[in-house]
Specification:
It is a single chain. With 424 residues, the protein is an alpha/beta fold. It contains 15 helices and 13 strands. The strands form two sheets. It has a seven-stranded parallel β-sheet with strand order 3-2-1-4-5-6-7, with helices on both faces. The protein has a six-stranded parallel β-sheet with strand order 10-9-8-11-12-13, with helices on both faces. Helix 3 crosses helix 5 and helix 8 packs across helix 13. The longest helix is centred in the C-terminal third of the chain and has 36 residues. It is globular and about 65 Å long. The relative contact order is 0.11.
C-alpha cells in the first residue's frame, strides 16, 4: 500500500572465521567490527572459529574441537591448519543441521571453501570476505616456494573459490583489480568493502589526559625526551618488522633522541634479540600482545606511526587505526597504503630501510604545527571514508542482493520444472 514502510529483513548470519578468533590483530579486527555493526543493525550473528582464541562478551562464538597435539595459536600459513579447518568444517556442518541461517559470511579462502561446500548442501548462499591472495600469503610466509609443484594446484583452487561464490568483498580497489586480472572473476560479483575504524574508540591522541599518557610511557620505560615511533600488528618478516628495526638502526646512527614502541606478537623474543644484535636494544620497547581495547591509548603515545608492510595483496587495517588517532604515518609505498592514506601519507621506497629511516626522521622532527595538521587531515579522512556504519549498510545491501538472486534462481527452477511436466 502507498505510504506503508518497507519491512526490514533481519538476517541470521553464520560467519566462518578460519583463525584463532579473537586475537587482537588484522583480520580479527575486521571480523569483530563487521559482526558488531551487523548486530547493532538488528541482525543475528554466529561466528564459527577455531578452538583457540579469546571470547568476546557481546558475540556468539562457536568453537571447533581442539587438536590435542597443537594447542597454540595459528598465525598465517601452517600445515596444522589443515586439521583445524577439517574440525571447523565439522562445526559448521553441525550448526547448519541444528539451526537455520539465511546467509554464510565466510572470511579467508579456507572459510569460503568450507562455506561453499556446506552452504551448497544446506542451500544457504555464501558471501566471501577476501583478505588477500591465498597463494601469495603462503609465498609471503615462505610456506610455499615459488617453484613448488603445488603452486599451480593452489592457484586453481583459489581461482575456483574466488569465482564460485556469488559475491566477494575486497578490502581495497587493488584487491579488486587482482581478482579481475589474475583470477578472472566477474566484475559484478566483486564489491569493495574497505577496512574501517571506529573513530570514537580510536580517538584523537590530543583528547587524552596528558597524565594518563605520561604514566603509561613511564610504565613502559620510555625516556620522556625521546621522539616515539609506534608500530602495532603482527611481528613477522612479511609485515616488514625486520626492515623497521634496520631503519631504526640507520636512524640511531645519526641521533639518539628517538625510540621505537613495537607492539604485537608472535616472535617477541626473536625481535627483541634482533634489536640487541643490531645494537639498538635500549631504544626499542616490545610490549607483546596489546588487547584491542587498550590499543588506542598505546597508539596515542606516538609521535609518528610506521607501516612497513610489503604485501601487495593483503589489507592494512592498522593504517586506519593510526589515522583515526591522528598520527602522521610513514609507510612503504604499496597500492593499499596509497589508497588508505591518500595525499597525506609519507611513502618510502618498498624494502629500502635507509629511505624509511630518512622519512621517519623527517616526520618525527617536522614542525609541530605541520605534524599536527597532517595528523588531523588523516583522522578526518578516516572518519569520512572508512566508518563502520556505512560499511554495515553496504554489507546488508549485498545480503539483500544475494538473497534476491537466490529466490529468483529457485523460482526459475520451479518454473522450468512445471514447464517440463506440462510438456510431458
Amino acid at each position: 500500500m502507498p505510504g506503508t514502510p518497507e519491512l526490514v529483513r533481519r538476517y541470521r548470519v553464520l560467519m566462518i572465521a578460519p583463525t584463532s578468533f579473537f586475537a587482537d590483530y588484522g583480520c580479527h579486527v575486521r571480523i569483530l567490527e563487521e559482526a558488531r555493526v551487523l548486530q547493532q543493525m538488528g541482525h543475528s550473528v554466529t561466528i564459527a572459529t577455531y578452538h583457540n582464541g579469546n571470547d568476546v562478551a557481546d558475540l556468539h562464538i562457536e568453537r571447533s574441537l581442539p587438536i590435542p597435539w597443537r594447542t597454540g595459536y595459528e598465525v598465517g600459513a601452517s600445515r596444522h591448519k589443515i586439521g583445524f579447518d577439517v574440525l571447523l568444517g565439522l562445526t559448521v556442518a553441525r550448526l547448519l543441521l541444528r539451526k537455520r541461517f539465511d546467509i554464510i559470511h565466510a572470511h579467508l579462502h579456507e572459510g569460503a571453501l568450507i562455506g561453499s561446500v556446506l552452504g551448497g548442501l544446506a542451500r544457504v548462499p555464501v558471501v566471501f570476505d577476501f583478505q588477500g591472495s591465498l597463494t601469495a600469503e603462503m609465498l609471503d610466509h615462505h610456506f610455499l616456494e615459488d617453484d613448488s609443484i603445488f603452486r599451480s594446484a593452489l592457484v586453481k583452487l583459489e581461482t575456483w573459490i574466488d569465482c564460485t561464490v556469488p559475491r566477494v568483498f575486497t578490502s581495497s580497489s587493488h584487491a579488486r583489480r587482482l581478482l579481475l586480472e589474475q583470477f578472472g572473476c566477474m566484475p559484478e560479483r566483486i564489491v569493495t568493502l574497505p577496512d574501517c575504524v571506529n573513530a570514537d574508540v580510536f580517538r584523537a591522541a590530543d583528547s587524552y589526559d596528558s597524565g594518563e599518557l605520561d604514566g603509561l610511557r613511564s610504565q613502559l620505560g620510555i625516556p620522556a625526551e625521546r621522539k616515539l615511533v609506534v608500530y602495532l600488528g603482527l611481528l613477522a618478516e612479511y609485515q616488514g618488522v625486520g626492515l623497521l628495526l634496520d631503519a631504526m638502526r640507520h636512524l640511531l646512527d645519526r641521533r639518539q633522541d628517538v625510540h621505537l614502541l613495537l607492539m604485537g606478537f608472535p616472535n617477541v623474543l626473536q625481535y627483541r634479540q634482533r634489536a640487541v644484535d643490531l645494537g639498538i636494544g635500549d631504544f626499542v620497547t616490545l610490549t607483546g600482545r596489546v588487547p584491542y581495547a587498550e590499543a588506542p591509548t598505546y597508539l596515542a603515545l606516538g609521535d609518528v606511526a610506521a607501516a612497513p608492510k610489503l604485501s601487495l595483496t593483503e589489507g592494512a587495517g592498522k593504517l586506519l587505526n593510526y589515522m583515526s588517532v591522528g598520527l602522521p604515518v610513514v609507510a612503504f609505498e604499496t597500492p593499499v597504503a596509497r589508497e588508505y592514506l591518500g595525499a597525506d601519507g609519507v611513502f618510502a621506497e618498498p624494502g629500502n630501510a635507509e629511505h624509511l629511516a630518512l622519512l621517519l626522521e623527517e616526520s618525527l622532527f617536522a614542525p609541530a604545527a605541520a605534524s599536527r595538521a597532517r595528523g588531523q587531515r588523516l583522522r578526518q579522512r578516516a572518519i569520512q571514508h572508512f566508518s563502520w556504519e556505512p560499511a554495515g549498510r553496504l554489507i546488508i545491501s549485498i545480503y539483500d542482493d544475494v538473497m534476491g538472486v537466490e529466490k529468483k534462481t529457485s523460482a526459475a527452477r520451479t518454473d522450468c520444472s512445471v514447464a517440463g511436466r506440462a510438456r510431458r
